[in-house]
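Course assignment 3, question 2. Fill in each field.
Student: A.L.
Task: Predict the tertiary structure for the chain below.
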Amino acid sequence: MMASLTASRVSSVASPELNQQPVFETTNVPVLWANLVGGDHILTGLDGAADYRSITLAWFRLQLMGDDTYRPMFHAPECSVCSDSTWEVQPEGGL
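Answer field:
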């Protein structure tokens, strides 16, 4: 099992440095930290919903349903989310 943190890169409400980074740096399980490039707190909830929906549903299907169809999105060597310019990704441990 692996954890996932998704957020927007630019947010005056919940900045990644203050909210996600401490979790990312102290977790004791493998985690994928993905920030939507150009997204802010409002965009994430409105216009950015489609970007979040696709990555979140794929993550849940892989982690909760064991649907290996989505493994290449998050795991090396492919990690298509890692190379997608829409996302700024920092994988940690076991990816």
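Instructor remarks: Helices lie at 16-19, 21-26, 41-45, 49-65, 71-74, 80-83. Residues 3-92 form one domain.
Grade: pending
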